[in-house]
Amino acid sequence: MSTVTLRPDAAGEVAQLAPSGEASNYLCVDEEVTDEDVTLVYTFDADWKRDLYGLEDTESTEPVYCVGVYARCYAGSTPGQTSLKIIVKTGGIVYEGGEETLVWDWADYTRAWYTSPASGLGWTKEDLDALQIGVSLRQCRTTGTAASKLSACTQIYAEVEYTEERYSLSSLLYSRELTTTLQDRSLVVPLRNRSLVMTLSNRDLVVALPSRSLSVTIGD
Fold first, then answer.
1. Centroid of chain to Cα 130
2. CATH 2.60.120.260 occupies which residues in the chain?
3. Which residues contact residue 95 at a Cβ distance below 8 angstroms, ignoring those fewer than 6 apart?
4. Which of these, 30, 47, 17, lies nearest to 138 by C-alpha position?
5. d(CA 41, CA 109)
6. Element of type H or E holding 211
7. For residue 95, which of 19, 122, 134, 157 sits 20 to 30 Å off, Cα-Cα?
8. C-alpha span between 7 and 5 (Å, rounded)
C-alpha cells in the first residue's frame, strides 16, 4: 500500500474558531512539522465551534483503502468533558467523528473513514479533491479561568491510504443490492463492468478477479 498526505491549502466553508499566529485559520494548522503554540485555532466557548479546511488535490487514481484525518490538539488544563470531534465534509454534508476528551498536553487524535460517508461506497478521486476536513471544539471544562477552559488545534491533515487491488461489494456492485447467479459450483457477482466469480473447487474457494485469481482454502 502507498500513502499520500493531504494538508490544508485553503479556507473551508466554515471558520468559527479563533486563529492565533496567522490571519487565516487554515494557515494556523497547515504546517508539515507541528509548531504547537506558535500557530493554532482555539475556543473557550461552551458551545461547539467548527472549522473546515480545503485540501491539496491528489494525483493518484488508485483504489482507496482508507482516509484518515489526524489532528494535534491540546486542553488548557485537566479536562472535565469531551471537547474534540474530528470532522469531514463530503457530498455537501458534514460528518463528525465521536467526541473525544483532550489531555493537558499536545497530543495526536485520529479518525478513519474506510468508505465515503456520503455514498457508503469507496472513495473516488473526485471525492478526495472536493473533501474538506476540520475539527469541532468546545471548552475542555465548565469551571475555572478562560485559559483553563482552552481547547486548541495546531495541526491537521488527511492521509489517504491506497491499495493496488481492492474489491468490496459495497464499492463494486451495480447498486447496494447484492444480485448473484449460481452457475454450477460458481457464484457470479455482477460488477460495474465485469463479473467477480467465486468457484468452490474441492476445499478451495477460488475468487477470479479481472486480472488474477485468489484461492482460499476452506477448513474442515
1. 13
2. 2-162
3. 87, 88, 89, 113, 117, 118
4. 47
5. 15
6. none
7. 19
8. 7
Q: Please give the grid coordinates belonging to residue 67.
A: 482516509
The CATH topology of domain 2-162 is Jelly Rolls (2.60.120)
Residues near 137 by beta carbon (within 8 Å), at least 6 away in sequence: 17, 41, 42, 43, 48, 49, 73, 83, 84, 151, 152, 153
The residue with cell 504547537 is 36
Instruction: Give 69's strand partners.
Output: 111, 158
Q: How far apart are the first and last CA of the chain?
A: 33
CA distance 25 to 33: 17
* Nine-digit cell string for 23: 490571519
Cell of 4: 499520500
pLDDT digit of tens for each residue in the chain (220 aa)? 799 999 999 999 999 999 999 999 999 999 999 999 999 999 999 999 999 999 999 888 899 999 999 999 999 999 999 999 999 999 999 999 999 999 999 999 999 999 999 999 999 999 999 999 999 999 999 999 999 999 999 999 999 999 865 444 444 444 344 444 444 444 554 444 444 555 554 544 445 544 444 444 444 4
